[in-house]
Write a structure and sequence with these properties.
- The strands form four sheets. This protein has a four-stranded antiparallel beta sheet with strand order 1-2-3-4, with no helix packed on it. Strands 5-6-7-8 form a four-stranded antiparallel beta sheet.
- With 183 residues, the protein is mainly β.
- The longest helix is centred in the last third of the chain and has 8 residues, at 173-180.
- The protein folds into two domains: 1-83, Thrombin, subunit H (Beta Barrel); 91-183.
- The protein has two helices and 15 strands.
- The protein starts with 7 loop residues before the first strand and ends with a helix.
- Strand 6 (59-63) and strand 7 form a beta hairpin.
- The model has no long low-confidence stretch (mean pLDDT 80).
- It is 7% helix and 39% strand.
- It has helices at residues 85-88, 173-180; strands spanning 8-11, 14-19, 22-27, 34-37, 52-56, 59-63, 69-72, 79-83, 96-102, 105-110, 123-128, 134-137, 154-155, 160-163, 168-171.
- The protein is globular and about 50 Å long.
C-alpha cells in the first residue's frame, strides 16, 4: 500500500508507513524482507487515524487522532505500550498533532483547544518517554513563535527543532529539563 499523507518512519529494521489500513512496513530489508501490518486487538484506537509516525529510542511511535501514543516494536510490529491523553492532556483540551521522540521525551506541537476553528499555536509540550507523564510546556515558545502555523517538530542528537515561517527554533533538551523539573 502507498504511504498516506507522507507518514513514513525509517528504522534500522525497515521502513514503515501509515495507510488507510493502519501502519505497515517492510522489515528486515533485502533478502528475506517481510511485509508487516501493526495489529493489536487490545489497542483502543485505530492506527488508520495516525497523524504522526516517528522512530526514536529504538522504537516506533504513532500519534493517533485521539492523542493516544502507541509505542511499537519496529522488528515485530507489535504494540508494546500505549499512552493515552489522560496522562499528558487530562482535560483533553490540547491539539496535539505532531510528535518527535528523543532525549528521553516525547515532544508534541500543541495547536490549542482541540483545533476548534483556527486555534492558535500554543507551544511545545514535553512528556516522559518512559512513563507517558506530562513534564511540562517548553518555556518561551508560544503562539507568536512560528509566525504562522507550526506543522512539524524534529529530534536530533543535539536538539529538538521546530521549523517556522522564517527560520528554525532550536530547543536544548538539557536546558528544558532543568527549567521544567518538578512540573
Amino acid at each position: 500500500m502507498p504511504p498516506k499523507d507522507g507518514l513514513i518512519a525509517v528504522t534500522p529494521a525497515g521502513v514503515w508507513y501509515g495507510s488507510a489500513a493502519g501502519i505497515s512496513g517492510e522489515v528486515r530489508a533485502g533478502i528475506g524482507a517481510e511485509s508487516v501490518t501493526v495489529h493489536d486487538p487490545g489497542y483502543p484506537y485505530s492506527l488508520a487515524s495516525t497523524s504522526s509516525l516517528v522512530y526514536g529510542t529504538g522504537l516506533r511511535w504513532a500519534l493517533t487522532g485521539d492523542e493516544s501514543i502507541a509505542m511499537i516494536d519496529p522488528a515485530t510490529g507489535r504494540v508494546a505500550r500505549v499512552y493515552t491523553y489522560r496522562s499528558y492532556d487530562p482535560a483533553y483540551d490540547g491539539g496535539l498533532d505532531f510528535l518527535a521522540v528523543g532525549h528521553g521525551s516525547l515532544w508534541f506541537l500543541d495547536d490549542g483547544a482541540l483545533k476548534v476553528g483556527a486555534a492558535p499555536f500554543r507551544g511545545v509540550l514535553r512528556v516522559s518517554a518512559a512513563t507517558g507523564l506530562r513534564l511540562g510546556p517548553v518555556p518561551g515558545i508560544g503562539p507568536a513563535a512560528c509566525g504562522g502555523p507550526c506543522t512539524q517538530i524534529y529530534a536530533t542528537r543535539s536538539a529538538i527543532w521546530v521549523p517556522t515561517a522564517t527560520g528554525l527554533i532550536r530547543i536544548d533538551p538539557a536546558l528544558v529539563a532543568r527549567r521544567t523539573a518538578g512540573n
